[in-house]
Each structure stands twice: as C-alpha cells, then as structure tokens.
Amino acid sequence: MSIKLPANSKMLAPDFTFGVATAAFQIEGANTADNRLPCIWDIFCATPGKVINGDDGSMACDHYHLWQQDIELIKELGVDAYRLSIAWPRVMNEQGEANQAGLDFYRNLLTKLKEEGIKVFVTLYHWDLPQHLEDKGGWLNRETAYLFKEYADLVTRELAEWVDSWATFNEPFCAAILGYELGIHAPGLSKPEYGRQAAHHILLAHGLALPVIRQNAPKAQVGIVINMNRSYAASAKSEDEFACLIRETLDNQFFIEPLMKGQYPKLLANVAPQYLPQVLPGDMEIISQPIDFLGMNFYTCNHNAYDAENLFKDVKNSLPVEYTDIGWEIAPHAFEELLINLNKQYDLPPIFITENGAACDDHLVSGQVDDDQRVRYLNSHINAVNNAIEAGVDIRGYFAWSLMDNFEWAEGYNKRFGLVYVDYETQQRTIKRSGYAYQTFLSER
Ligand code: FCB
C-alpha cells in the first residue's frame, strides 16, 4: 500500500502545501522549565480519573529539549510545512509581561525551521489556557477574550518574522464543548450553557485578535482552525433526520456560521434555546471579520438517532465499517461530502486541512512499525481532498496529524497518531511505515 494521487491532481502542484502538525502541550514536556506557568491541562491531568493511566504533560515527547532532532525528522519526511502551537503559559507571566526564556525557545525553533526552508504555521491557542486565568473563570469570563488579544499581540510582535501563517484558535468546539459542556477535557466543567458561552468568548477572542495580528504580521496569512465531523442520520425516519440536523447544527454550524455570516444558527432559538450564548452588541461583527484562510480538521463521521431528552444520541453505523484504534469510523467519503457541502453553503476563504490522521495500534517490532491502516487512511483521505478540489472547493494545503506520537488529551499516551513512533521510556523516535509512505509520496511529486 502506498499514497497516490491521480497524475493530473492539483495537489501535486508545487504551490499545494503538505505538512505535519503538532501542539505544544502534546509534545513539549518540561512543564515547569524556564518559568512556564501551570495550565488547565496540568491541573486536569493531576485530577484523579480524568486522564487514562493518570498520564500528564510533564515529559510528553520532551520536545522542549529534543526540538533540534525533531526538526531533522521533519526534514527527513520531506514536508513543505510544519504546524505547531505556542504555549501561552510559557511566554507570558501572570502580570501579562513577556517571559523571555519561553519566547527564546520558540525563537530558536522557528529560526531553525526557516533556515531549513520549512514553512511555519502557528496556532496561538491549542487548549493550554494558563491556570491563573481559569481561576478567574477561564473562557466563561468575557475578560479572557481581551487577555487573549494581549497574548496574541505579544507573540506576533515577538515572532512574526518567522511565521507564514497564524491561526488564532485550534478547534473552538473541543476547547469549549469538551472542556466546559461535556467535561471530558480541561477544565472539566459540564453544563450546556457553559459550553456555548465559552465558545462565544473564544470566537470573540479570535475576532479581537485578528486586527492586532494583521498589524504585527502584515505579510502572514491569518485565520482560525475548526474541526468538523460529518453527521448522518441513523435511519431515514424523520425523527432521526431531525436528530442529525440538531447534531450538525450544534457541532458544526454553531462554529462556522458566526465566522462566515456573523450569526448563530437560527434553528437553535426555536428548538434548543439553552444552547444560545449571551451576545453583546457588536460581538458578531467582531467575530465575522474576513479571514485569509479557514483551517479544517477532519477525522471521522457520526450517526445520530432521535433522543427525547437530548434531541440526538450517537449510535454506531449499522453497516460493517472499519474503525481506528480510538474507535473512530474511517469515512473518507464523509470528508469529501463535508467539504463540498460547506462550499455550497458558504462563501469560503481558501481552506487548509490543518489536521487529518488515524490512531492505530502500533508496535515497534525489530526496529519497525508496520502501520498499514494509517497508510490506507492517509491515502483515502488525501484522495478525498483531491475529489473535493475537483468538485470546486479551494483547498491549498494538507497537514497530517501528527508528526509523532504524543499526549492524546484524555486518552493520555495510550493512543498513537504519529507518522513517527515515540518510545516514551527512551524518547527514541522511529519513522513508521506511514512516515516513509508520506515521504515517498512527497518526494515523487
Ligand atoms: C484534534 C486535536 C489534536 C489531536 C487530534 C487527534 O481534535 O486538535 O490535538 O489530539 O484531535
């Protein structure tokens, strides 16, 4: 099995960007080094029962110390670009002043990436809110949106020189809904009205930061990264179709509609008003300012049946389908349909697929990892992107999640998404078969 596109694919042109992605908390470790402040994930990990095996981010991939060898790996894969995130608790102290030691880490990293000719895509917020801000209400506190603007200002003033593309947030859905509505991610709160209010403040923070980033980084592209799963109805029954519509509205439209059209989905006011946040005059204009690109993270699809209490419930596909090691259905057709549908619904800016990948049951045997499922996953999803482009969707790049195995949030180190295997005892990295398949595919363009 290999990764292959049709010979005439636009994705083989030199201006289509291929990359790999990571996030600070998931790889850096060193969570007290150089005055890094505690973040909500440090506290969440330390709370019994929240993360599998009680895993935490204190060591992770020790990328804070091993970054040079990790850049060698990125080079070896032959990608055009690397997507990483900056840890807010590393670069800003409680008084809102710069922490130079933390900034130096990123300065060195970014300088080296640029020297190696690798394009740099930075995400400002990949879920590691400083805990002192959570203590004041976190994303439930509107003030946090204004403090994010200060943080974005600091980082883009200090690091703009090396960055090609800035994303304000990674996956507001996960940060707000998993963190404040479902309680399965940090900070672990769970009320329907919390999730949506947190989401609104995150979107507001995005909008408040945009003009500041543009001013500090006039040459870079500026956007946001959202995640979407394609929703299907569990059956053709009208109540299941309704359940699917609600799911799609709450998970997907709730995030893209304010960004693209400056409003939350009208449907909610009638059927689920408890999911509408408090919005102040002017907020929606701030949120819906134009962006240069929309980042899209895609992994799987879901199937929905009607549920009297919650309006929808998740059910398994009734057909025999393949799942990854994290239990997510493999559904490349869903990816293609999702992109094509969005393109019909909205006047979209250029899209970058900022994450896509699979968790597999990987084993290092005689120095090799034979992750055939991941190779098939990457091949089918890269081809799904190609089909969407053929159908008229403007997609400019694709990033595999992830460069290497890392801390998979509530799943700890138990789930592996890397193109590179990490032995957490020795911190040894081994390129998996999927990494070599990606490398071969990229070198043959
Ligand atoms: C996404 C996250 C990323 C990673 C993948 C598997 O939701 O953005 O950090 O954990 O899922």
Please explain how this structure is put together.
The protein is of the alpha/beta class and 445 residues long. It contains 15 helices and 13 strands. Strands 1-2-3-4-5-7-10-11 form an 8-stranded parallel beta barrel, surrounded by 5 helices. Helix 14 links the parallel strand 10 and strand 11. Helix 14 (372-390) runs parallel beside helix 15. The two termini are 17 Å apart. The mean pLDDT is 98. It binds beta-D-fucopyranose.
Structure keywords:
445 residues, alpha/beta, eight-stranded parallel beta barrel, 40% helix, 16% strand, binds beta-D-fucopyranose
Q: What's this entry about, in short?
A:
The chain is an alpha/beta fold. It has helices at residues 24-27, 40-45, 63-77, 88-91, 100-115, 131-134, 143-159, 172-181, 192-216, 238-261, 267-271, 283-287, 332-345, 372-390, 433-443; strands spanning 17-21, 81-85, 119-125, 165-170, 221-227, 230-233, 293-297, 301-307, 311-315, 351-355, 395-401, 420-423, 428-431.
Number of DSSP strand runs: 13
First-last Cα distance: 17 Å
Q: Can you count the helices?
A: 15
**Share of residues in strands:** 15-25%
The poorly predicted ranges are: none
Percent of residues in helices comes to 40-55%
Q: Describe the global form.
A: globular
- Which strand order does the major sheet show? 1-2-3-4-5-7-10-11
Alpha carbon gyration radius: 21 Å
Output the structural class: alpha/beta
What composes the largest sheet?
A: 8 strands, parallel, barrel
Ligand set: beta-D-fucopyranose
Order of helices and strands: EHHHEHHEHHEHHEEHHHEEEHEHEEEH
Mean pLDDT: 98
